[in-house]
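Section 3.1: Structural characterization of target chains.
Under the original work plan, the team committed to producing a structural model for every single-chain target entering the pipeline before any wet-lab resources were allocated. The record below documents one such target. The sequence was received from the expression subgroup and is listed exactly as submitted; it comprises 281 residues.
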Amino acid sequence: MVRHTRYVLLLPGLVTFVFFLIAPLAIMAVMSFFTPVWPGYRTDLTLNNYVAYLTSPQFRILAFNTFSTSLVTAFICMIIGFPFAYCYTFKIKSERTRNYITMLLLAPFLIDWTIRSVAWISILGERGFVNSMFLSAGLISEPIKFLFTPTALFIIWVQTNLLFMIFPMNLALGRMDPEVIEAAKVLKAPPYRVFYDIVFKMALPGVICGFIFVFVNTISDYVTPSLWAGGLQTLGLSVSNYASQFLWPQASAGGMILLVACIIVLYILLKVVDIKKLVYE
């Protein structure tokens, strides 16, 4: 009886996993093969939803916009987050200071998403803080249009997802012995070799884990591009448009295509490095 107790403890999580993840995905997969009839669908099975989606002239544009913006955002977060995670791990010795920094990083997530979205108007608007600062410094002669452009999308996505890149890298760097870095310096290893061969390679599981977090968060986000990207069309936004018109089979087909594409990208990333090293080493 005691031996089977641990399996009983898995039941709540397993039931939640099945009902709120597996079951909806299964319904969406079956729905994607139904015949669309506005408003609604017929249960006649067909591949036309996938064929129409994949052969649409807009599909290449949607796919390019979706993956390019998500990948660029993940790279920007990695470039900004790695130096921050390195300094946070090795340069800040005070535990109290680290706690203060962590609180500051988490503070934006205590604010409602709607309020955070509206707040960007006062920051990136033509009369916002950034333009006012540039005008006061004499760097520009007229306000720069940040809002409703892809630039605004990247700024908002980076600010929103940077934390998901920093923490996994901090976890990986925290498992590194600083004496290894010092030994390499004593042996006169060039700085770039110390960084790449020791620091970066040992932190790579955290980098990949953070990359996955940012990529998944952005590729599935259709609200932010629709609000701030100035009409930039993405696969997620396309799925949302189909769903808003009650064209459930096309929306399900688009969702399945996006899901399969994500799985392929994640599989490639996970083949690069074993992220289980973050936990078991």
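Residues 57-91 form the longest helix (35 residues).
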